[in-house]
Design a protein that fits this description.
Blueprint lengths: L5 H11 L3 H16 L4 E5 L3 E5 L3 E8 L2 E6 L22 E5 L7 H20 L25
Helix pairs in contact: 1-2, 2-3
Length: 150
């Protein structure tokens, strides 16, 4: 279990992206911590900076020409400022593709981060002990004999 912590790995990763994308990654990281002081940094899926609080909140990755910030359960989050611009038809995730000339609406992004944390917490609160199936007191009908199987 040795080796550098996820925070150190993310530090190194951001430093290795030596153009505007590294600056955006650092900005996203700062906003994650400003929005939620209890967010946990993780290093998942062979090198993806991940932020979690009672479940994955979001992951960020630099690509050629953009930085993609993907919210794991983004389809369930309110987005009144229309920050999401990718994955809008998906049933779970939503993403924000950030281009070099884009300005991040920090307030709206922090609102999304907080909404993601609240969603994760609501999912935990909604989990109870596995329910047991209650059997009906009515007798079951016997299965029909369909004859010999072929």
């Amino acid at each position: 279990m040795g080796g550098p912590s996820p925070s150190v790995l993310i530090d190194r990763y951001i430093a290795s992206v030596a153009d505007w994308r590294g600056e955006r990654m650092a900005q996203i990281r700062r906003l994650m911590h400003e929005a939620d002081a209890e967010v946990v940094e993780e290093w998942k899926w062979r090198g993806t900076p991940t932020w979690s609080h009672d479940g994955v909140v979001a992951v960020a990755s630099p690509f050629k020409g953009k930085v993609k910030l993907t919210f794991a359960r983004g389809a369930h989050l309110p987005d009144p400022q229309n920050v999401f611009n990718n994955g809008l038809e998906g049933k779970e995730w939503r993403a924000v593709d950030i281009l070099e000339t884009d300005r991040i609406n920090e307030t709206a992004l922090k609102d999304l981060i907080r909404a993601a944390v609240r969603f994760n917490q609501s999912q935990l609160a909604g989990k109870t002990a596995p329910s047991r199936r209650i059997r009906s007191s009515r007798p079951r009908k016997p299965a029909r004999n369909r004859g010999p199987s072929a």
